[in-house]
Amino acid sequence: MTEERKGRSGEQRPVRGRFAPSPTGPLHLGHAQTLLLAWLQVRALDGQFVLRIEDIDRERERPGATDAIVRDMEWLGFDWDEGPGCGGPAGPYLQSERLELYEQTLERLHPRCYPCVCSRKDVREAAGAPHGGELPYPGTCRQGRSSAQRSSLRIRVDSEEISWDDLWLGPQAEDPSEICGDFIVRSKNNRPVYQLACVVDDIAMDITHVLRGEDLVSSTSRQLLLYRWLGAPAPWFAHTPLRRDEAGQRLAKRRGSPALSELREAGAHPEQLIGTLAHGLRLIAEPTPLRPEALVTRLKRARPKLLHR
């Protein structure tokens, strides 16, 4: 299956991209790099840029993190057309205020879903792999299990190859049944999970271009299935390199990567940081201080495929 791009009537949709951070901690240079590319892509296409806060994981949310994200983005010189602080026709722009929409969508998907009481430990043990990353769900609860335990909600995934043309990585193809199997769409605490909420919001906000880090590439095939099951056109995806430290480790909040606010307090200049990021992305030859808008034409020359409509 290859993803569909255009609207149902076949017309070319207006370009709309987004930046969708989670308020679980401060932004660092890795976030700023993804933000820079996503913002440049949309501005180079004369599109609308949306800021959405993905705050459905309330247990991990840090007080004041949303305001800090807005401050960091403004300090770096970014603007947005819709989102916190300016509103817009597709709001609200906090996922915690969009729960009714997710529930309505789950009702539409209900025929494909079933309750599951399995934990991550159960899945690992069933696969004989006590350690490691994501494993395909073995289908333990697919035929129904009688239990008084709290259950999550999984959606059935059949075996098939899902392909897409990634605007950074090139042609991609995956079988989500081998990567994740039947995946969770609502958690045991009765909250929609990232995979569902992300797609529902991108559909509702008419997002045409999704640029995000390459760590999320494995989410794409299952999200393309959700677009299909919901009868919505898929966006263009671009999965870009992660920024790494001197040891080759990806920048991450849990590893203590310096926050943008810490760099600001230490005297860093925003235009210098933008220049450093642009140099690392090979948009400029030397790390020259620049504002984001000065890089729009450079992105057009360096990464023309990102501008595909």
Summarize the structure in words.
It is a single chain. With 309 residues, this protein is α/β, with parallel strands linked by helices. The chain has a domain at 16-96 and 163-178 and 204-307: Rossmann fold. It contains 10 helices and 9 strands. It has helices at residues 29-44, 65-76, 99-109, 120-127, 176-179, 194-204, 220-229, 260-265, 270-280, 296-302; strands spanning 16-19, 48-51, 113-116, 152-155, 162-166, 170-174, 183-186, 209-213, 236-240. The strands form 4 sheets. The chain has a 3-stranded antiparallel sheet. A hairpin with a 3-residue loop joins β5 (162-166) and β6. α6 crosses α7 (220-229). The longest helix has 16 residues, at 29-44. The mean pLDDT is 91.
SSE layout and pairing:
Blueprint: E1 16-19, H1 29-44, E2 48-51, H2 65-76, H3 99-109, E3 113-116, H4 120-127, E4 152-155, E5 162-166, E6 170-174, H5 176-179, E7 183-186, H6 194-204, E8 209-213, H7 220-229, E9 236-240, H8 260-265, H9 270-280, H10 296-302
Parallel strand pairs: 1-2, 8-9
Antiparallel strand pairs: 3-4, 4-7, 5-6
List its traits:
309 residues, alpha/beta, Rossmann fold, three-stranded antiparallel sheet, two-stranded parallel ribbon, 10 helices, 13% strand
Q: CATH homologous superfamily of the domain at 16-96 and 163-178 and 204-307? A: HUPs
Structural class: alpha/beta
CATH architecture annotation name of the domain at 16-96 and 163-178 and 204-307? 3-Layer(aba) Sandwich
Helix content bin = 25-40%
The beta-strand count equals 9
Whole-number mean pLDDT: 91
**How would you sum up the major sheet?**
3 strands, antiparallel
CATH class of the domain at 16-96 and 163-178 and 204-307: Alpha Beta
N- to C-terminal distance: 20 Å
Low-confidence stretches: none
Residue fraction in strands: 5-15%
How many helices does DSSP assign? 10
SSE series: EHEHHEHEEEHEHEHEHHH
Shape: globular
**Oligomeric state of this protein:** single chain
Task: Return the CATH topology of the domain at 16-96 and 163-178 and 204-307.
Answer: Rossmann fold
What's the Cα radius of gyration?
20 Å
Give the neighbour order of strands across the main sheet: 3-4-7
